[in-house]
Amino acid sequence: MTAREKFNRTRHRIGYVSLVGSLVAITAVTIIMANNAMNALPFFALGMLIAFIGFAYGMCFGYRCPHCDYSCHAMCVFSGKQMFRVNPHFQFCPFCGTDIDMEVSVTDEAGTASSV
Ligand SMILES: [Zn+2]
User: What one-character DSSP code corresponds to residue 38?
Assistant: First the structure.
């Protein structure tokens, strides 16, 4: 797996979590505005919390370079218009200079190492 694939996978996950949180919040606002039902307010807060947690996780832990472990979130999130993939012009880690398309050995969530 390359660093770019790892960043894209993280971007997918965070994008979907933020999308679900935003949809819950928008649905709650719609219910509140249509029915003046303020009891949907906790669902708005829950949706915003889900979206924020997804975004904050990505900023803190999601876009770490597999070579130097510094966060490349600025290049992965703020440098492109694509919602679910990293900017294709992002080629090298700004901290260690490693090509992000180079194959690396990564450890997945189960703790098994793979070097593909
Ligand atoms: Zn690096």
Answer: G
- How far apart are alpha carbons 106 and 61 in whole angstroms? 15
CA of 100 to the centre of ligand 1 (A): 8
Domain extents in the chain: 3-115
DSSP assignments along 81-110, one per residue? S-SSS--TT--B-TTT--BTTSB-EEE-TT
Structure tokens at 84: 């679910």
pLDDT of 47-58, one tens digit each? 999 989 988 888
Q: What is the pTM of this model?
A: 0.73
State the distance from the centre of ligand 1 to the C-alpha of 110, rounded, in angstroms: 23
- 23, pLDDT greater than 90: yes
Digit-coded pLDDT (tens) for 84-113: 788 888 899 999 999 999 888 756 555 555
Cα 97 to middle of ligand 1, angstroms: 6
